[in-house]
Amino acid sequence: MKHLLTTLFAVCLSYTAAVAQEKEAEKAPQEKTVSKEEKEAAKAKKEANLLEVFKIIQATPEEQAKMREFIKESGEYGKELRADPDFTEEEKIMKLKVYAKIKNARLRELLGDDRYKLYRDAVNAQKGRAPKK
């Protein structure tokens, strides 16, 4: 009888350990793998969206160039900040929010209040967000 209970206990313990390991493997974060075609498609969609916004706000070529520069600077700043191990995630988020306010102030200065509002509404519509009032 002792042997039967010991064997049963060992089988249950082994089963529990095996199931726990499987669940840990399921919880492991999946690495993002994006194909070259998907990257190109995303880049093309981003460019098409930007051109659509330029049409909506009737941006001049000079304004378009400056806006592209602001967007590029913002992206580079975000990449550098995300790669910096000196800051916590909360600090990175706060720094990105502050930088976004600076960038938006520069865009507002470039476009004026009315066209800046059109710009924000168009960008929010593309991202599927409700426009802010």
Could you please describe the fold and organization of this structure?
- The protein is mainly alpha-helical and 133 residues long.
- 82% of the residues lie in helices and 0% in strands.
- Helix 2 packs antiparallel against helix 5, helix 3 packs antiparallel against helix 4 (89-111) and helix 4 packs across helix 5 (113-127).
- The longest helix is centred in the first third of the chain and has 26 residues, at 2-27.
- It is elongated.
Shape: elongated
Helical content class? over 70%
Q: Describe the largest sheet.
A: none
Distance between the termini: 76 Å
| Radius of gyration, taken over Cα atoms and rounded to an integer in Å | 26 Å
Mean pLDDT: 83
Structural class: mainly alpha
Helix-strand topology string: HHHHH
- By DSSP (H or I, 4+ residues per run), the number of helices equals 5
Q: Stretches where pLDDT falls below 50 for ≥5 residues?
A: none
Number of strands: 0
